[in-house]
Specification:
Layout lengths: L1 H27 L9 H7 L9 H10 L4 H13 L3 H14 L4 H32 L21 H38 L4 H13 L3 H14 L6 H15 L5
Helix pairs in contact: 1-6, 3-4, 4-5, 5-6, 6-7, 7-8, 8-9, 9-10
């Protein structure tokens, strides 16, 4: 009876921790680059904002789908409410109408990075949840079974494991896709400002997270060329060396 009780207690402990963790994100804006938590509102001490409402901006977009300013305002309003996925759609439409707006492209990349981080957090929470729900369901030492006998897996543990694997896999795939989209946005910024070392560095880091090692190396090298005396250049050179070791097999 000990293990079932432990599993029940672990489940409620997880619910409590998840609630505290989630409230920390909502109230204080932890882990968000949007600055929309209640903590931010408290710090602002009720200062009014010129940000349009989502309803007003959406109505303008409906009236005129080619109104770039309306799409921009809608993206801003959605971002202020931490509705990242919707803000990405609105800002993508704006940048399609205004492809040379560097500020908007960088903001779009930032939204994609925020989405990627959120997906990673969801994967981590799913794994944590599985750990609590399956606590005490396995033996600390292997059981000695008769020759040829097998121990069937607990069906509850099997179901939880399957669901967690699916959730983690989907979250990871969504995270990688968001990193690739952020990298694409930075590519457009680089095309507009090819001599800006900061943009090269942002592209390099994002491409690396997206798993595009070759592109990351090229952008890191461009950063070093543009900013040879930057304090971070030695670290970037070390990063280049490590990444090249990953893509270049050692001689046998």
């Amino acid at each position: 009876m000990f293990f079932p009780r432990l599993r029940r207690h672990a489940k409620w402990m997880f619910v409590f921790l998840a609630l505290v963790f989630g409230l920390g994100f909502v109230i204080f804006g932890i882990g968000s680059d949007q600055g929309t938590g209640i903590g931010d509102l408290i710090r602002d001490q009720g200062v009014s904002s010129d940000i349009p409402s989502v309803e007003e901006a959406r109505e303008r977009v409906t009236r005129n789908p080619n109104d770039a300013g309306a799409h921009r305002d809608l993206a801003t309003a959605l971002s202020a409410e931490a509705r990242t996925d919707e803000a990405i759609v609105a800002l993508s439409r704006y940048t399609a109408l205004r492809p040379r707006d560097e500020s908007a492209l960088r903001e779009l990349a930032g939204l994609y990075l925020s989405k990627a981080n959120r997906q990673q957090q969801e994967a981590e929470l799913a794994a944590l949840r599985a750990g609590y729900l399956t606590a005490g369901s396995t033996f600390s030492t292997p059981l000695e079974l008769p020759k040829g006998a097998t121990l069937e897996q607990d069906p509850i543990v099997a179901a939880i494991t399957t669901e967690v694997n699916r959730t983690v896999s989907e979250a990871f795939a969504a995270s990688q896709e968001a990193y690739r989209s952020a990298s694409d946005a930075y590519e457009k910024v680089v095309a507009l400002s090819p001599n800006d070392p900061n943009v090269q560095l942002e592209l390099a880091q994002t491409a690396q997270r997206a798993g595009n090692t070759v592109r990351a190396i090229a952008a890191y090298e461009e950063f070093v060329r543009l900013a040879p005396d930057d304090p971070s250049t030695p670290l970037v050179k070390q990063q280049i060396k490590e990444l090249k070791a990953q893509v270049t097999p050692e001689p046998g």
